[in-house]
Amino acid sequence: MAPSPALNFPPELLLAAQGIRVAFFDVDGVLTDGGLYLSAEGEMLKRFHILDGLGLKLLQEGGITPVVITGRDSKPLRARLAALGVTNVHYGTEDKAPAARKTLAALGLDWAQAAAIGDDWPDLPVLRRCGFAAAPANAHAEVRAAAAYVTTAAGGHGAAREFCDLLLVACGRYSQLLERYA
Question: How far apart are CA 150 and CA 116, in angstroms?
Answer without folding.
Answer: 12
